[in-house]
Amino acid sequence: MQIQLAECYRFAINFNVLEIEVPSIQRQSGSIDCGLFAIAFAYELASGNEHTIQSKQFKQHRMRDHLIRCLENGEFKPFPAQINNKRKREDPNIFEIELFCNCLMPEVSDDMILCDLCDHWFHFGCVNVKGIEGNEQWLCPKCTPPAS
């Protein structure tokens, strides 16, 4: 999932770190309506309602029929809900994904190599490195002097 997030938010990266904020939101009762909630929250976010999403209380018993009507009519409308300002607001869960290389992607299963001059990490595949012997020094493309 880290790769997908880095790819989607490539232009929102700050100093090679992608910060992800996961707000505390309503969870479904039971185990079968997670898809309904995913669609309802996606609709809210796409509609620009990210500021009210933590206080939104969906009426779970009406969501499935609402979704069916939306699909039949070919138009999405807000899911049945009410604003619950009394709901205890929890701080969002924030995590960071460290990004490397010219590709600005996280460390993946690909081997990586450290530039001996600038101390930046690079994926072998991105800089066409197959391997390195013992104490051999390696310089990234930016640190490699131009050929004379």
Automatic annotation (TrEMBL):
SMART domains: PHD (SM00249)
Organism whose genome encodes this protein: Paramuricea clavata (Red gorgonian)
Name of this protein: Polycystic kidney disease 1-like 2
Pfam families named among the record's database cross-references: PHD (PF00628)
PROSITE patterns, per database record: ZF_PHD_1, ZF_PHD_2
Entry superkingdom: Eukaryota
Record InterPro entries: Papain-like_cys_pep_sf, Zinc_finger_PHD-type_CS, Znf_FYVE_PHD, Znf_PHD, Znf_PHD-finger, Znf_RING/FYVE/PHD
PANTHER family assigned to the protein according to its UniProt record, in alphabetical order: PHD-TYPE DOMAIN-CONTAINING PROTEIN
